[in-house]
Amino acid sequence: MSRMPLRFIMLAGTTLSTPFFATGALGQEEDILLLDEIRIEAADAQALLGNDTITEDEIESRNPSSTKDVFAGESAVTAGGGAAISQKVFVNGIEESLLSVTIDGARQNKSAFHHTGNVLLDPELLKSVEISKGLAPADAGPGALAGSIAYETKDASDLLEDGDNFGGRAQLGTSSNGTDLESSLTLFGRQGGFEYLLSGTRRSGGDYEDGDGNPVLGTQADLTDYVGKLAYESQSGHRFEFAASQTEDNGLRAAQAGPGGILFIRPDFAGITSGPSVLAEGLSRRTSYTLTYSNTQPQGIWDPVLQLSHNEQEIDAIGIYGTNKSFSGTFKNKFSIAGGSVTAGLDFFNETAEGQGRGPGPFASSGREELESVGLFAQARQDIGERVSVSYGARYDKQEFTGAEGSNFSDGGFSANGSVDVILSDNWTLNAGLASSWGGYELGEAALVNFGTAWDYSGFTTSRANAGRIGVRFDNGTWKASAALFRTDVNDIAAVLPTNGARGATADLKSQGIDASLEYDWAAGFARMNWTYADVELNGAAVGSTAYYLGRPMGHVIALEGGFAIDEQWSVGGTAQIALKNSDTATELPGYEVVNVYAAYAPRNLGNLEIRLDVRNLFDETYASRSSDGIDSSRVIALNEPGRTIGLTARLKF
What we know:
mainly beta
């Protein structure tokens, strides 16, 4: 079991006590408190510390129809894997299952099956994405070993025009490769203190073709998404929100025979070399319910957020079935201190992983694991003088774990983080940060609990991560440039997908390298280049492309993005991803270059209509994404990404 140095424990105790000594009399009524932005929380400072935000404007310009499209233009964050059911996200080469992932603050669990993605997501209502690459703050939630990903979706208030009480958006699209029809309808409104939003999305089509014109079996679009939101806000700012959503992918997927002679869908592969593939209907379904209380007019020290969430992820992979369930909550308050604020509170979760095999003998077994966690946290963010800004925090988590055979484990640990932003001159700034995060126990893969053999928990333990980052940035208003060195070590990761049932087997993962960015802005547009080199190692050797729930061999990835508003009616832009050849792995990974461009037209006399033309993979490159599964395995036929795809989309606001 990994231990935490004494200096971090001392820092944790000091930080947790800060709000109680710095806020003044608790009973005193004060005017509504409006704080200026703390400098270290500014977008440029956070980006250098590895905490990027993909904004609403960037999401709209990328026009995403899948999780992978959301991260176009990013070099440190990659995704791949064909259909929505199989797409996984990696941050500096580390899989998202080792990060804290939330949607509108609600905790998300990992996948129930390693051949499918971790969080099934429809980006239709996506407002922003905040990514922390290694240095997650204490209030990002438990389990933020390698950082965090926070998705935020739109509410009715984000979509209504000033003075309107009702509105809607309709979208209709098609493409030449894979998606035959993409449609969505969103209705929203407000009356008195009430707000509501109803949205539905449907994507359907056939298998896409790669750059060589070969159909890629089992990649058809078949996604349905429903979202409902209801909110009430009193005149004094007390706001209650309830959200419910269900996202489902149940298309025909490539399946092959596996253990016990039963079929398994493997939508992350084009096939396997040991036998043929057939099409079978798989299922990935995510269902979420969230209740949130906040105060939009905080009085004095009272600026609370209370949230309860239920999240369920189901996978039906033909030969096996698995379900991850999570009930979680957060109770936090933002306190004002000199030069900034402290966010402190409590969070908890109860999660289960349960599965069943559908084969003969030991391949018909089933099992269930359970994990309970309670955490206390505090995170301070403040300016210290005119040139120095800091963020520092700590949390303590206590967990109880129950294994599939009834064994019980209990442990707790401290986490701490600190970062600093120092103005060196009018144009130059230095940023640095350190974090040590206790990860706790890991639930195993739900669909394979006890599959083939009973799981053994000998040596089962908790994990810890240590991360650091230091960099500089330049900004003269027109040109922006930054570069940072990073390293993240995650140790004692319990086997989520155990060999011969050995859940107590552990692994050590390391990602280190450099993040750099160069951007030029002018009145009507921007051009940006991001470059990331991530050297990812597992147990001291280059990580492979089937290190499920751990990482992938990234190497050098370059991302380009630009946009230009020609006039008030026409805009153009695009993204590109360039992956250089990676010779660090046992099997050399080839490089590739993919370019996407678009043109959008909003007729002046029809101000609520936009027509957009996208050309993805402009040069018809044949390639498998650097983050795809099995690309260096002799047993796997790698899944190629779509070839040139021409898409046409019409959007109407009313």
